[in-house]
């Protein structure tokens, strides 16, 4: 079964909106390697409409420009790009198509197809739905040491919790921490169980 990995730049207070306004000072070689491993090595990209529009408006030009980011731009261009949208689109970026049918059913079927990893970047509304459905195998959060204090956060208020499992945690020299989470199980217990782990006087 194919693996879905989702990557997000996130502030310490959970804000994920407009990362271009606050995350670039923290971008170094370590982060570049992490982003390339999660997104650049995927052979399929699953993107929300807004994220796709942003990518399609920038990366083809960067590929053609031949600067330092041209190789990464080429990887994105060569990947199959599937866009989650209810609108008809006219594509100018190669290898692009619209996801057809119900999101959960279509992504479940996509994971059953042959191929490599399916990468996601941004696309918060899609990430939320796939997390709730248990379809994201790895949630890559690049946690920046800054509180933005305004803007949309990754997790909305809800009546139920969403347990996750920490798969890895890697600090960068900039203070960014690359945390990778997978699906988790709901834990049980209260203070009666917790107090057993408090320090005891001998």
TrEMBL record:
<dbReference type="Pfam" id="PF01872">
    <property type="entry name" value="RibD_C"/>
</dbReference>
<dbReference type="GO" id="GO:0008703">
    <property type="term" value="F:5-amino-6-(5-phosphoribosylamino)uracil reductase activity"/>
</dbReference>
<feature type="domain" description="Bacterial bifunctional deaminase-reductase C-terminal">
    <location>
        <begin position="2"/>
        <end position="177"/>
    </location>
</feature>
<dbReference type="InterPro" id="IPR024072">
    <property type="entry name" value="DHFR-like_dom_sf"/>
</dbReference>
<protein>
    <submittedName>
        <fullName>Deaminase reductase</fullName>
    </submittedName>
</protein>
<dbReference type="InterPro" id="IPR050765">
    <property type="entry name" value="Riboflavin_Biosynth_HTPR"/>
</dbReference>
<dbReference type="InterPro" id="IPR002734">
    <property type="entry name" value="RibDG_C"/>
</dbReference>
<dbReference type="GO" id="GO:0009231">
    <property type="term" value="P:riboflavin biosynthetic process"/>
</dbReference>
